[in-house]
């Protein structure tokens, strides 16, 4: 009779990995790709809507205010699409925000034309950083105050 190393009440391998906060390389790659895609879509939004939105007036304020509910809806949708428990989205969100912030910084320095020019790039880059902050706050709220470091 083979001897098993698992205890009778052990959690399944995937559940244990989620409990320990471990992620496979494939899952990390998935969240990196999602973060890059979200950043690129935001950069395109800045390019095409930026000249209208960044008037440092009411439209500018509306854009920033719209980021908060968008962060919650997007975090929920990403959790559903990736089959990640909503209260476990802090780690994946850190991965997505890291790549988005890296790409945003690199584009601001080396490719401001992506945002529609230098005048729009400063406001657009700041708006994207504000947006990723809203995404992170949403992940923290969904975690319900139970985040392990």
Word description of this protein:
With 149 residues, the protein is mainly alpha-helical. It is built from 5 helices and no strands. The longest helix is centred in the first third of the chain and has 29 residues, at 25-53. Mean pLDDT is 84; it is low at 6-17.
Order of helices and strands: HHHHH
Helical coverage, percent range: over 70%
Straight-line distance between termini = 41 Å
Alpha-carbon Rg, integer: 19 Å
What structural category do the secondary elements indicate?
A: mainly alpha
Envelope shape: globular
Q: What is the makeup of the main sheet?
A: none
Q: Care to count the β-strands? A: 0
- How much of the sequence lies in strands comes to under 5%
Uncertain stretches: 6-17
Count helical runs: 5
Mean pLDDT: 84
């Amino acid at each position: 009779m083979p001897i098993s190393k698992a205890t009778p009440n052990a959690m399944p391998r995937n559940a244990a990995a989620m409990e320990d906060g471990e992620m496979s390389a494939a899952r990390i790659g998935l969240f990196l790709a999602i973060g890059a895609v979200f950043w690129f879509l935001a950069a395109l939004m800045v390019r095409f809507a930026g000249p209208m939105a960044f008037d440092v007036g009411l439209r500018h304020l509306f854009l920033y205010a719209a980021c908060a509910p968008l962060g919650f809806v997007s975090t929920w949708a990403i959790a559903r699409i990736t089959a990640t428990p909503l209260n476990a989205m802090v780690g994946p969100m850190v991965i997505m925000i890291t790549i988005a912030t890296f790409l945003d910084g690199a584009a601001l320095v080396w490719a401001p034309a992506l945002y529609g020019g230098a005048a729009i790039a400063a406001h657009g880059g700041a708006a994207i950083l504000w947006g990723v902050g809203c995404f992170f706050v949403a992940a923290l709220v969904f975690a319900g105050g139970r985040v392990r470091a």
